Structures are given as C-alpha cells and as structure tokens.
TrEMBL record:
The keyword Zinc applies. This is DNA-3-methyladenine glycosylase I. It holds the Pfam family Adenine_glyco. Gene3D superfamilies: Hypothetical protein, domain 2. It comes from the Bacteria. GO terms for molecular function: DNA-3-methyladenine glycosylase activity; metal ion binding. It comes from Liquorilactobacillus satsumensis DSM 16230 = JCM 12392. Coiled coil: none annotated.
C-alpha cells in the first residue's frame, strides 16, 4: 500500500494519523477545534512531536470541548507546568482565545464546521500533486481564510497554520496521487 512519503518514518502514530485522519473531510466540531489547536501547537515543531503529546493535550484541554476551554484562563498556570504538553504560553492562550471565538460564532448562529467549510463551498479541494515536495506550505485560499479568521478574533491563525489545518481537516486533500488516500 503506497502512502505519502512523510508518513513512512516508522512512527506508528504518524502512519495511523496519515491513514485515518489527514486529508479526510472532518465535520465534527470537537475534532475541528482539536485539529486547529494541534496545528497551533505544531508551529515551529515537528508534527510527530505534537502527535506524541496528543493524548496529553486531550486530557489537559477537556477533550477540546470549546465550552470548557473558553474558561481555561484560570488554568493557565497549571497548563504551564504540565510537562506532558507543549508549554508555550502564547500558544496556550491562543487556544483558549480561539475556543471563546468558536463559542461566540455559535451564539451568533454559525457553527465552526459551517464557518470553515463555507470557504470551500462545502466541497474538499483535491490537489493532484505527484510528490510531497510539490505541496505548498500555504496558498491564496489559506491567506484569505487566515485574514478572515484574524478579523473574527482567532489567534495564531497565520496562513501556514491555516493551510496545515485545512489539510488536516480535509478541506484540502494534499495526498499525492500515488497515495492510497488520494481518492478516498
């Protein structure tokens, strides 16, 4: 079975993530918020590092329940000493802030799923890359979405993080054409 080259490192978590999640259209509110939060944590680090700490993040962030996370300001000191997670204060504060934004969007009648998927007309964009080296770190769509997310109050949502999130959540399918997940 052929898969994207980045998933062939020998790390089972990475392979499983590639095979079962990455690039697969996600419409689950909790999962979308989790993926955005994990992409924030990944900035400047390897995705493998984040995956290795994913279970600890889920525990520390109440399984990424935005209704709980929006009130985590008081838990920041506790998060900052939790050695099982990445303890970057700016990233932690961004996750709390972003939970607040998602809750505000929902209160205004827009669920996070609709907020994100409207940018791609509710249809995944499927690229036709031959090799992983062709896959960009961002594109015009991610820049546009990033700008809107920032206007709406999201933090740590630059174009590179946004593009990675779009890939992770399946709004963009960047599996190379030879990968078994390209045509899911």
């Amino acid at each position: 079975m052929e898969r994207c080259s980045w998933a062939n490192t020998g790390n089972e978590l990475l392979k499983e993530y590639h095979d079962q999640e990455w690039g697969m259209p996600c419409h689950d509110e909790h999962k979308l918020f989790e993926l955005l939060s994990l992409e924030i944590m990944q900035a400047g680090l390897s995705w493998q590092t984040v995956l290795n700490k994913r279970a600890a993040f889920k525990t520390a962030f109440a399984d990424f329940d935005v209704k709980q996370v929006q009130n985590f300001q008081a838990k920041l000191p506790q998060l900052m000493v939790n050695k099982a997670i990445i303890r970057n204060q700016r990233k932690l504060l961004a996750i709390i802030n972003n939970a607040q934004v998602v809750v505000k969007l929902a209160a205004a009648g827009t669920c996070f799923n609709d907020y994100m998927w409207q940018f791609v007309d509710y249809q995944p964009i499927v690229h036709q890359y031959q090799t992983h080296t062709e896959v960009p770190s961002t594109n015009g769509l991610a820049k546009k979405i990033s700008q809107q997310m920032k206007r709406d109050g999201f933090q740590f949502a630059g174009p590179v993080i946004t593009y990675s999130f779009l890939q992770a959540a399946g709004l963009i399918n960047d599996h190379v054409v030879t990968c078994f997940r390209h045509q899911h």
